[in-house]
Amino acid sequence: MSEEPKEMLVGEKIKQLREVKGITLQDFAGKSGFSSALLSQIENHMVSPPLGTLIKLAKALGVEIGEFFEDVREAPYTIVRHSERKKISRVASKMGKNYGYAYESLAFDKKGRHMEPFLVTLEPATSKDKHAYAHEGEEFIFVLEGKMEVQLGDHTDVLEPGDSIYYDSTIPHKVQCVDDKPALIVAVIYSGQEIEKGVAGQVEPEED
What we know:
Number of strands: 10
CATH class: Mainly Beta
CATH superfamily: Jelly Rolls
Distance between the termini: 39 Å
Order of helices and strands: EHHHHEEEEEEEEE
Largest sheet: 7 strands, mixed
Number of domains: 1
Strand order of the largest sheet: 1-2-3-4-10-5-8
Helix content: 10-25%
Oligomer: single chain
CATH architecture: Sandwich
Number of helices: 4
Radius of gyration: 16 Å
């Protein structure tokens, strides 16, 4: 029987990288565009950030998003077995809230990559995230199981197994499962330009 993917504590990794680089929480807020209060909640696992937020935090720290997944990035190719996937659950562990999905990194340790593929489980949320998110880059989503609702700007649609969508991530977007039934999707994110130290992200509202 294969092992379950190991769950990563992304908040701790973000805090570690920030401290190693000598960046204060206030400076981090200025570079990322998020409030220092929200960043503190993320680092202390009171709020679990969506993928779009992780992309902005990585750029603010001047690192690749894979750094949050203990990504070595030394291999010319990578094969990721089921038990080796690195799972990030959008559960704020100290608050006991489920924000609606868990995601698993599928391509860590591949050097020089420009895409970030994830296996994402959309789950019924106990804490609704009302905000749509926008960031640099592009995204491709393919639905494997269940139904997924996508909000893309002013457009809302429902995708079923076998359906896919490709869009610019600069358009405010949000995905969630339908009728409180889980859905399984593959999401591939291209984060846009190369990492630039000190790039400020777009301000997003704090999560409740």
